[in-house]
What we know:
The chain is of the alpha/beta class.
Amino acid sequence: xxxxxxxxxxxxxxxxxxxxxxxxxxxxxxxxxxxxxxxxxxxxxxxxxxxxxxxxxxxxxxxxxxxxxxxxxxxxxxxxxxxxxxxxxxxxxxxxxxxxxxxxxxxxxxxxxxxxxxxxxxxxxxxxxxxxxxxxxxxxxxxxxxxxxxxxxxxxxxxxxxxxxxxxxxxxxxxxxxxxxxxxxxxxxxxxxxxxxxxxxxxxxxxxxxxxxxxxxxxxxxxxxxxxxxxxxxxxxxxxxxxxxxxxxxxxxxxxxxxxxxxxxxxxxxxxxxxxxxxxxxxxxxxxxxxxxxxxxxxxxxxxxxxxxxxxxxxxxxxxxxxxxxxxxxxxxxxxxxxxxxxxxxxxxxxxxxxxxxxxxxxxxxxxxxxxxxxxxxxxxxxxxxxxxxxxxxxxxxxxxxxxxxxxxxxxxxxxxxxxxxxxxxxxxxxxxxxxxxxxxxxxxxxxxxxxxxxxxxxxxxxxxxxxxxxxxxxxxxxxxxxxxxxxxxxxxxxxxxxxxxxxxxxxxxxxxxxxxxxxxxxxxxxxxxxxxxxxxxxxxxxxxxxxxxxxxxxxxxxxxxxxxxxxxxxxxxxxxx
Length: 578
């Protein structure tokens, strides 16, 4: 039995197909001076061919899976259009005189390394985009054919060291019955495709490919993130029962997702979605989100080779506001920093030894007020097309908050002078994710209309735990008394001043933690769209009075594991089918 990361729900059992990608061997040799023009032309032709191949894949995915899944390959096409990548390759060639494959590989590896070192899981996965495109470009330059998973002829569980988006696009649902990868995370493109195809998937199983052989059979438990190699008859029987129970439970989730988010004692709990791009609106609406609790605007910047202008940002914010009107849309201002590379901000952000504690988010915006005001004007203009609320990330104290509000006032005045309409009463909030902010919410409440607790960062700052560090993962405990007491203090300070409190971190989307948050007094929850049905189902299966009693008991306990056990017991007692 091997523990990995649950990536796509479902249970599969079958013989494995071992799919091992090998790194291309790129030869290095000098190019004669009279042939250098042809070498650049060969590079440009390689990019053209690669672009044609990816466009073909995108069209096939759109036809088979739909436009949302096909957008995966927009990122790949953008890599091929990246002038910095292209010009750096040609500059490397002109400097070294080595063959174009070697130069392109060197530059691409530098980009991949930069993204691999990012702390943000979603952004770190984007290194896979560059790696996939670079592999395809090199294959075309070297004249080597790409391997296709679509060639799989019989039903098999695909076990791979990695699956690229191009690989994933070729997966056939009728033959690939499960996916297991050594590497990857919940945000990898292979996982996105697996979910779309409803193929059970487990990722991050750490070198499983080196411990199995052709002919082995495995159970893939996409619910618990478990892979069982060569299971016994007893285990097969047990998983048959589990599969039946899970299907029954999923039918309950589907039915509950269409019903009001209301506890058994009649308390309405607003459940909203966290989104990163405009094209995620459809999924959020399909999952019955009551608005957007967190729109991460930095992805508009990271998917662009230039700073997005006011009009570009306005179009995105307006589209989301209109899609959810009259439900609320909370737009978070730019949360970008030294750990998130962006070519267009290279002059603004520098390498830092500890970027998570560095020049990022509101600190960056306050140092570059014109860039900040461009975003603020775009958000303000979008506010007339729906119920828009705005919040600042990584606020550490009232001084930063008042400076941000001063720049906001300037942006408002500029729009008045331009004759542009905006909601004069648009609510402004603060994210509570730094301990200093959590300790001064009574002061911050005088300058904020609402709070949103970012539990991911708040927990790692409170406990001094890097949540991306595998060696410290066991110390990252959302049920630590310091975390629960801090949330309780934030809620009490806010409610005393009639300010609502939301949670938009991972805790909000976990049904086990959800009653603790509600019991502590949190007013709204925001989560990734796929988490909404399970959370709503549990909201409808419990009483708010019981959740308050659970939280009160948790605040008296000192052991995080005991608190978690109580919360899990609370969950299992009310959700009969798991």
